[in-house]
Amino acid sequence: MLQGACFFGSGGGGTMISARHLAANFRSGDYYPTDKVRVVDADEATDGDCVMVAYMGAPDAINQVQWPNGPVEAALAARQRLESQGRKLAYVAAPESGALGFVVAGLVAAKLGLAVVDADGAGRAVPSLPMLTYAAAGVPPTPAFLAGESGLCVELGVRMPPPDGKPQEDVSTVVEQMLRPILTNPQFGQFGGLAMWIMSPEQLGGALPVRGTLSRALKLGRALQGGEVRTAEAMLDFLRRELDIKGKLVFGPATLASSEVTTAGGFDLGKVSLEDGERRCTVLYQNESLLAWDSAVSHPLATAPDAISYFVEGDGQHVFSNGDLSGDDHGLDPAVRGRKAAVIALPAAAPLRKGLILQSFADELAQLGYLGPYAPVDAGREGA
């Protein structure tokens, strides 16, 4: 599941390194009361309330975590709040598709005796909270609980002023702006466990329109693990044949050439480059890949909200996040330097192509210097 989720994460959603560190300790014992994770469809989640749980912060800072203490503490705070209201926490949901997001949701559920909903808030990974379907559905994002590995837990409540006729800022945007600086506190160290968007069964359907994402990650991961998918063309064929996803090869296979990354404000900011003769493909990311350029083409190869993912050919691991491609010196990991990789774009789910979510992606792209329109990868260039 981690391999499949990593591919769907658009270069983000946490690293395979961090997800594997957490998964390595998942066994029944003193910490986990069970070694099973129960997953339910969104329509089956009717026995109580659900909360979104995650790690928030810079992927590079999360890589060495072995126990999900932060997300567990945040979920416990949410459960205690519900119990004080005579309600029951029964489910957790991942924020997005990604290796870390899926494993955290599963481990928190196993630790606390809950179930995981087979859906997430985007179908890809995203750099900010307003890009998630929870926000678009208008589910109140607070109370939000942010817990550090040290045990420090911050509760955030936001009450917006009455409308005065002017466009009002989305509450999740305000929550994001307030949570990010907290992560820079030394007791957090650029990351923390997050629990927010507490949802009743009646709210869950509208908040999670992107369904079956854990199941599809598991299906793709099994194909990768079993050697069924070893080339970029085989990946595109599998996506189309088994998952009804019309991905597009936008560059490569070409040689992985370089990686640059800096960490600031809870984000890894950087770019990955691939070379094919005189041509160079550059993928720009803010935790997640948002924009891909070809040095020989005057328009972007792909833009968010479409996912931009890597498939690395040859022996060894085939799927990587941006963080996995980065070595200890924040350059390209020597283990992947020179390997052939393809950049594959995946069409965004319909809820990401409109309203608050699409505008949030446009705002992030503007920060990267792209001021043009969203160009859907599944539209012809003339119709984009």
What would you note in describing this structure?
This protein is α+β, with helices and mostly antiparallel strands and 384 residues long. Strand 3, helix 5 (99-112) and strand 4 form a beta-alpha-beta unit. The protein is globular, with a radius of gyration of 20 Å. The two termini are 33 Å apart. Strands 1-4-3-2-7-5-6 form a seven-stranded mixed sheet, with helices on both faces. A seven-stranded antiparallel sheet has the order 12-11-10-9-8-14-13. The protein has twelve helices and 14 strands. Residues 174-353 form the S-Me-THD-like C-terminal domain. This is DUF917 domain-containing protein. It holds the Pfam family S-Me-THD_N.
What's the short version?
The protein has twelve helices and 14 strands. With 384 residues, the chain is α+β, with helices and mostly antiparallel strands. Strands 1-4-3-2-7-5-6 form a seven-stranded mixed sheet, sandwiched between helices. Strands 12-11-10-9-8-14-13 form a seven-stranded antiparallel sheet.
What does the secondary structure layout of this molecule look like, with pairings?
Layout: H1 2-8, H2 16-24, E1 39-40, E2 49-57, H3 59-62, H4 69-84, E3 89-94, H5 99-112, E4 115-120, H6 133-136, E5 144-147, E6 153-156, H7 171-183, E7 191-199, H8 201-207, H9 213-225, H10 232-243, E8 248-264, E9 267-276, E10 279-286, E11 288-294, E12 302-303, E13 307-312, H11 322-325, E14 340-346, H12 355-367
Parallel strand pairs: 1-4, 2-3, 3-4
Antiparallel strand pairs: 2-7, 5-6, 5-7, 8-9, 8-14, 9-10, 10-11, 11-12, 13-14
Helix pairs in contact: 1-5, 1-9, 2-5, 4-5
Pfam families: S-Me-THD_C, S-Me-THD_N
Domain S-Me-THD-like C-terminal: 174-353
Protein name: DUF917 domain-containing protein
